[in-house]
Automatic annotation (TrEMBL):
It comes from the Bacteria. Residues 165-316 form the Glycosyl transferase family domain. Gene3D superfamilies: Glycogen Phosphorylase B. This is Glycosyl transferase family 1 domain-containing protein. GO terms for molecular function: glycosyltransferase activity.
Length: 350
């Protein structure tokens, strides 16, 4: 058998989480086994000589047709479609299991919409979940247990010796300014700690409300940085000490690993979901509400040794889930799934 031709169907060079993940996967898939194809829009990135790029128009009117035409004519062995755009659903509905289409469950909202149920369980050949928490929800809602493939991180340090203190001086929020992400709740926390610097990376429909809240409460300790490229996000995180996630619902927030890779623990509100990566009290905290979140911040402010240890454990977490480690799981999944698809195709009646 020759190389397995795989299309990673997000837009490498963009800042969407699925785009970044596809970039990292494309960079590491074994070129002796896979013929890797990726999509891009205006930002073409360097992935070496073994990756094939396909330009998709930025024009809203023709973007979907451009992507549909490219996917239909590429004739890949495997199509990995993690963004689940409208055109991805249309493509899957047209071609169904005549082609080996796979995807990933990355957020619990998919269980609230029938179109995603159809996409995952009727149109495509297979899918995986990115956390055990989501896998349990998958069994509950769709009666299917899936393989779990964790997202990876990029570690820039060789060891943890760079974590030389337990001073908590700067806290970060990373995400869209949308209702689900609760950016105004983050500002309520910032209001309670005027001596700590708080930064916000992102933008969205609540940007006006965020700006108004900062102005009306005179929050001089808060800086909004807008939406940044992934490399710029990482650069900002290297200046921070702690990540807060105040969202109502999440899948497995990639930013937890990005923060951990620079020694930043995470405190998140776990009322409606669970972050597999976080061991409560070890490399972060799972809390039930904002009051408990603020209590945990005070706890870390009063105990520098505890915070230093937590930062060290966070970094070790990122090292465990580095892309160089988890890529082997992705390669095995793609190969095993394609082989199952071939057998099922051969065994199905013509």
């Amino acid at each position: 058998m020759g190389k397995v031709k795989i299309l990673l169907g997000s837009y490498v060079g963009s800042v969407n989480a699925q785009d970044i993940n596809c970039y990292e996967i494309a960079k590491r898939l074994n070129s002796d086994i896979f013929e890797v194809h990726v999509l891009h829009q205006k930002n073409k990135v360097d992935l070496g000589n073994n990756v094939h790029f396909h330009r998709i128009s930025n024009n809203r009117l023709i973007k979907n047709l451009s992507k549909l035409f490219k996917m239909a004519t590429l004739n890949a062995d495997i199509y990995y479609l993690p963004r689940i755009e409208k055109i991805d659903i249309i493509f899957a509905k047209i071609f169904g299991k005549k082609r080996c289409i796979v995807s990933s469950v990355e957020i619990q909202n998919v269980y609230e919409n029938k179109k995603y149920d159809d996409f995952f369980n009727k149109y495509i050949f297979d899918y995986f979940c990115i956390s055990n928490f989501l896998n349990k929800l998958n069994v509950k809602h769709w009666n299917k247990e899936c393989q779990v493939l964790y997202l990876g991180s990029n570690n820039s340090k060789d060891d943890v010796n760079f974590i030389n203190n337990g001073n908590l001086k700067k806290i970060a929020f990373v995400g869209s300014f949308e209702e689900r992400k609760k950016p105004l709740d983050y500002l309520k926390v910032a209001k309670s700690f005027p001596d700590i610097e708080f930064i916000m990376i992102g933008s969205g429909s609540l940007s006006g409300e965020v700006d108004q809240y900062i102005k009306s409460h005179n929050l001089k300790n808060v800086k909004t940085l807008g939406r940044l490229q992934n490399s710029e996000v990482y650069k900002e995180l290297t200046t921070c000490d702690l990540l807060l996630i105040v969202s109502d619902k999440e899948g497995l927030p990639k930013v937890v690993l990005e923060a951990a890779s620079v020694g930043m623990p995470t405190i998140y509100i776990s009322k409606n979901y669970k972050v597999d990566y976080i061991e409560d009290g070890i490399n972060g905290f799972a809390v039930q509400n904002l009051n408990e979140m603020m209590n945990r911040i005070n706890e870390l402010l009063s105990n520098e040794d505890q915070f230093k240890n937590m930062r060290t454990e966070a970094y070790k977490l990122a090292a465990k889930y580095s892309w160089d480690n988890v890529i082997n799981d992705y390669e095995k999944y793609f190969l095993d799934t394609y082989n199952m698809y071939i057998k099922s195709s051969y065994n199905s009646p013509s």
